[in-house]
Amino acid sequence: MTSKITFALLPQPVTGNGPAAFQARAQALGDFRMNNNRWPSTRADDVSERTLGEWHHNQRKYYKTGSNPAFTTERAAHLDAVAPGWRVGSRPRGEAAFEDSAQALGDFRMNNNRWPSTRADDVSERTLGEWHHNQRKYYK
Predict the structure, then answer these.
(1) What are the distances in angstroms from CA 139 to CA 34, 133, 134, 135, 136?
(2) How many whole angstroms from its chain centre is CA 58?
(3) Residue 1's pLDDT is what?
């Protein structure tokens, strides 16, 4: 199962932590979320997605811990405006997470007539394959 990932690439590499760099990354994060209906992954094969996912992870960490003095309430407000929901974890928890994964597993099985592989090149298939493997292991 190959899914196409789309997001607005930054026109040029963004360096530094100034306001312009922050705003460009924040906009790219919002665009990614809007186009893909998920947050970028820190484990993605695609370097652009992985870099954006790591940046998103860091912003959440700075917001929670206050460990970066450059992360101001203005920056948090800007992220709220261009990437609503950025503060919340990207994964549902508890029963909702199980239901979502079980549904995805059923959909995969129906669409591909096989179980997802834990060795797949596709990150989403591999993640689903690992989840399936763990559920079987826990059941035993």
Answers:
(1) 37, 10, 9, 6, 5
(2) 13
(3) 46
